[in-house]
Amino acid sequence: MPSSTLFDTSIGRCGIAWTDDGVLAVALPEPSDEAMLDYLNRFGAAAGPVDALAADAIARIVDLLDGRTVDMSPIPLVLDISEFDASVYTVCSSIPRGATLTYGDIARRLGHPGAAQAVGGALGRNPVPIIVPCHRVLGAGTEVGGFSAPGGANTKQKILGIEGVPGFDEPTLF
Fold it and tell me: What is the pLDDT of residues 42-65, one digit of tens each?
């Protein structure tokens, strides 16, 4: 049976669901712990003791959100996704910290130059944000674009700022 737990990060409380085989889901900060647990429950996860796999994933997420450069590739994932979504996540996972691509860039890299909206849809379904860094994908130009995690574009901008992406790390007046 999948397990889940909540943990604290620099952007707020997050959650994770996993099995012995890998991570199923990551929950970014929600308005309440209950909302995060409800989300993780959709993956069949119930609160459980943190094993080595989950502890490693949590440490990597916390470190990334603390501004460290972290390799997420050793974290095994167990995702029930389409082949297209998997290909989008592969390209997205290749974007290094501090860099971004556009939805159109990813579509072109996949050989489907007109599929920017489909790429956005795939990223909107990403069950493992941060591990698959969908926050590093922008709209045309430097438009933040959508972000389905709680807090939406503000959360995306905050993470991009933590990662030192130019234009997102500068303080605002308001």
Answer: 999 999 999 999 999 999 999 999
